[in-house]
Design goal:
alpha/beta; Dihydrodipicolinate Reductase, domain 2; 12 strands; 2 domains; about 260 residues; 5-stranded mixed beta sheet; about 35% helix; 7-stranded parallel beta sheet; Rossmann fold
Length: about 260
């Protein structure tokens, strides 16, 4: 499996390379990033993903909106699969990724932890079992350097809740202050905490009369996301063109990360 890492100098790019080191049958074929981010030594680097991507490669992208668009175009042109993890994308960026799925396999996720994928399954099961009058709140914690807020994972969890409850996007309540008044029944609270070096902490709180249930996932370091990205890359090696999720990886037979 030949990997092309886009955003290779970033936290996730480095984590994926470290997780792939020594794995049998896995090669880091190219590292792509902005020239200003190139490290001293440490392999061959490039700014243009299309120039280093080959048919049959898997491009693993944790970069930016521009990086995601460039990776999608390169994969569609070269016949390479795409694992995309950039968050905070605009509708036109998402459209570029969708366009690539007509020609190649694309797996896009806001969080590559297999534990988060399992949390989403557990959340759907819990919401399906509980009365619809239970309130739902989502709290996420991330490090002080994270740019987007709330996290892409929190928004994904919120979208799962809204789909199951049949709530519109206007049901989202981003924090509360002042005289907020009684909580409406069809409201979904989203709360973002930023500070320190939290890698990722997501809580879904389900509250009924006299009892409550918490579903929580804590990422201790980026190894969890890197292992999920590698599992996704291996899954895509034999996948037909189309759109895939980490749930597809969980359902697939065989080892998850290696």
């Amino acid at each position: 499996m030949r990997l092309v890492l886009v955003g290779a100098a970033g936290r996730m790019g480095r984590a994926v390379e470290a997780a792939a080191a020594g794995l049998p049958g896995v090669e880091i074929g190219a590292r792509v990033d902005r020239r200003a981010n190139f490290p001293e030594g440490g392999g061959v680097w490039n700014e243009d993903v299309a120039s280093v991507t080959r048919p049959g490669d898997v491009v693993v992208e944790f970069s930016s909106a521009a990086g995601a668009r460039a990776a999608a175009a390169a994969c569609a042109e070269k016949g390479a699969a795409l694992v995309s993890g950039s968050t905070g994308l605009a509708p036109e960026d998402e459209a570029a990724l969708r366009a690539a799925t007509a020609r190649v396999a694309v797996l896009r996720a806001s969080n590559f932890s297999l534990g988060i994928a399992a949390l989403r399954l557990a959340l759907r099961a819990a919401l399906g079992a509980l009365p619809e009058d239970w309130d739902v709140e989502i709290v996420e914690r991330h490090h002080r350097g994270k740019r987007d807020c709330p996290s892409g994972t929190a928004l994904t969890l919120a979208a799962d809740v809204r789909a199951l409850r049949g709530w519109p996007e206007s049901a989202l309540r981003h924090g509360r202050q002042g005289q907020a008044g009684p909580r409406p029944a069809a409201e979904l609270g989203l709360h973002a905490v930023r500070g320190g070096t939290w890698v990722g902490d997501h809580q879904v709180l389900l509250a009924g009369a006299g009892e409550w249930l918490e579903l929580r996932h804590v990422a201790q370091d980026r190894t969890a996301f890197a292992q999920g990205a590698l599992a996704a890359a291996r899954f895509l090696m034999t996948a037909a063109p189309g759109t895939y999720t980490l749930e597809d990886v969980l359902r697939a037979p065989g080892p998850r990360a290696r």
